[in-house]
């Protein structure tokens, strides 16, 4: 693991939002001072790996001073971007961002789509999704958007039926048909791969699957389709920072042919460039 700062999932306790809004007080001007390095909050895999590729191979030539901070939760990168502790973040999808802004009163906006991490269903107990037994327990992410994505994935593969129009806001309460009487264990997204020995199957976000040495393209029982998928991972900033020249440089580098090749060579279909 690279020697970059890490914030663990402990911040998801009751004080998570407060921590995010007060952390790194000495770095309050990180976003406002465009003469300094651009500090970007990112999930370790693949986001920080992609950013570190940019930092090590492309940034200097482009005149970009880039600093990468790793976070292992889905809350602090946005709160840190909102309060200016970091200048940008790269870890989330547009539906998740929209939901986060609505619930937390934050003002984070998308700059550019970079990649897709297909959500997948994994199991240590069965080799095929239709082999799940009646009453099987499936772990799913507990945040609004990823829970909805997980249920949509199961519905798309015939394991259940959802109410029409619920989209990524779906919850288990929106299930209209459940022929296998599946039960659901709602966990923080980072915990889902760790639950595989305790449940019959788990729906895991692509980045957490890769961290857990799962290969989505090979190991998933079912996997989200890339075509017309709204869940691309994006570079985001606080509203008003979109024209920061450092952000513009990073957006260009993240959608460069070099980064596309890095993604293709490194992740072999488990991460897909969206540009």
UniProtKB/TrEMBL annotation:
List the InterPro entries hit by this protein, alphabetically.
Lipoprotein_NlpA (IPR004872)
The source's superkingdom equals Bacteria
Topology with regard to the membrane? Lipid-anchor
Specify the signal sequence span.
1-23
Subcellular location per the Swiss-Prot or TrEMBL entry:
Membrane
Which UniProt keywords are given for this protein, alphabetically ordered?
Lipoprotein, Membrane, Palmitate, Signal
The yes or no answer to whether the keyword Lipoprotein is present is yes
SUPFAM superfamilies reported in the protein's UniProt record? Periplasmic binding protein-like II (SSF53850)
Give the family, as the similarity comment puts it.
Answer: Belongs to the nlpA lipoprotein family.
- In Swiss-Prot or TrEMBL terms, this protein is called Lipoprotein
Q: Which organism is it from?
A: Streptomyces thermocarboxydus
What lineage is on file?
Bacteria, Bacillati, Actinomycetota, Actinomycetes, Kitasatosporales
């Amino acid at each position: 693991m690279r020697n970059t700062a890490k914030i663990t999932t402990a911040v998801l306790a009751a004080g998570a939002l407060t921590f995010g809004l007060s952390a790194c007080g000495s770095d309050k001007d990180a976003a406002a001072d465009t003469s300094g390095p651009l500090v970007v909050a990112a999930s370790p895999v693949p986001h920080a790996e992609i950013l570190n590729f940019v930092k090590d191979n492309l940034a200097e030539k482009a005149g970009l001073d880039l600093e990468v901070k790793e976070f292992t939760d889905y809350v602090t990168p946005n709160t840190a971007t909102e309060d200016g502790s970091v200048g940008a973040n790269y870890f989330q999808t547009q539906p998740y961002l929209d939901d986060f802004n609505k619930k937390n009163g934050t003002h984070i906006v998308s700059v550019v789509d970079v990649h897709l991490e297909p959500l997948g269903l994994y199991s240590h107990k069965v080799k095929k999704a239709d082999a799940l037994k009646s009453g099987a327990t499936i772990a799913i992410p507990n945040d609004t958007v990823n829970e909805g994505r997980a249920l949509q994935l199961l519905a798309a593969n015939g394991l259940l039926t959802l109410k029409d129009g619920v989209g990524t806001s779906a919850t288990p309460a929106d299930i209209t048909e459940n022929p296998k009487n599946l039960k659901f264990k709602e966990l923080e997204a980072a915990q889902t791969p760790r639950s595989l020995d305790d449940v019959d199957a788990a729906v895991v976000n692509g980045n957490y699957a890769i961290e857990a040495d799962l290969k989505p393209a090979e190991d998933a029982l079912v996997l989200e389709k890339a075509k017309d998928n709204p869940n691309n991972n994006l570079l985001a900033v606080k509203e008003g920072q979109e024209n920061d020249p450092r952000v513009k440089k990073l957006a260009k580098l993240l959608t460069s042919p070099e980064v596309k090749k890095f993604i293709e060579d490194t992740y072999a279909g488990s991460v897909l460039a969206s540009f």
